[in-house]
Amino acid sequence: MFLKRISTLFLTVALLVSIGQEFVMADEIVVYSARKEHLIKPLFEAYTKETGEKIIYVTDKAGPLMQRLKAEGKNSRADLLLTVDAGNLWHAANEGLLATIQSPILDKNIPSHLKDPKNRWFGLSLRARTIVYATDRVTPEQLTTYEALGDTKWKGKLLLRTSKKVYNQSLVAMLIAEHGEEKTEAIVKSWVDNLATAPFSNDTKTMKAILAGQGDVGIVNTYYFGRLLKKDPNLKLALFWPNQGGSGVHVNVSGGGVTAHARNPQGATRLLEWLSSPKAQNLFAGANMEYPVNPDVQADATVAAWGSFQENKLNIAKAGELQAAAIRLMDRAGYR
Ligand code: FE
Q1: Residue 296: half-sphere exposure toward Cβ, Cα within 13 Å
Q2: What percent of the chain has pLDDT over 90?
Q3: CA–centroid distance, residue 289 to ligand 1 (Å)
Q4: 137 CA distance to ligand 1 middle (Å)
Q5: Confidence of residue 224 (pLDDT cuts 50, 70, 90)
Q6: Which fold has domain 127-250+316-332?
Q7: Among 52, 71, 181, 283, which lies 20 to 30 A Cα-Cα from 236?
């Protein structure tokens, strides 16, 4: 016991001496993360264990983190920004908060529609925003597309989350990219006409309302469905993959980018590259029941059990570019 303590002490002293304060500072990677602590901590610990590079992180919501980066400017200690939704990543890039990164590893690991065409942000996990239905009242044969949720057969049966949530803004932005504003406005209006009740504040409430019989169909992110299913394996809900053979399922990402004023841009780039690698992809995506973006990596068994689907391959940067138009359009259509 005593000997063990002595040796631990020795090791600690030896490390302090050999590394030195300056070396540690230069090697640290500072991450601002809108991705929650329990989802990133195990990954960062694994990275530090593997590379010896220390990661310091701050977690908050996307908005405040971007405001902070902007206010700090050149004095920011952040090297890497991690957040969810292409709309948020696009905004960070548009505000000049992210640096352009040329990396053959990122190019190889991340499909081109899931990253910024100008290489300022990169998708690291994929979530589908898809249709969910009550299995005791709806058959999958009755469902086809997002657009068809506006059919009169769903009158008083559709449940949606609020249009204030960036996920729905991105969904509508991608519909605009595909159909143009006029047609998309008619689609959104037809959804509003079918609403069983006012939109909910989150996806889980939407699904619970379907379970309670308030409505029969809704639109949710896959991992929220996964969380409910984990709590109740006999859940009377199922996912439906719409627009197959057409535009595909609407997908979005959580992702990141190296900050414009990073002090350790190389370290931040290496961390991004590692997060896109096969070994980290399963941990990163699986921790939140999401899909890996790296096509060489299989989804977690729980996630794969929901079935495979063809995804929309339109570059998700469109979700940011058309976000303001989507917000105005939803307002005009009466989607609150
Ligand atoms: Fe979410």
Answers
A1: 10
A2: 92
A3: 11
A4: 27
A5: very high
A6: D-Maltodextrin-Binding Protein; domain 2 (3.40.190)
A7: 283
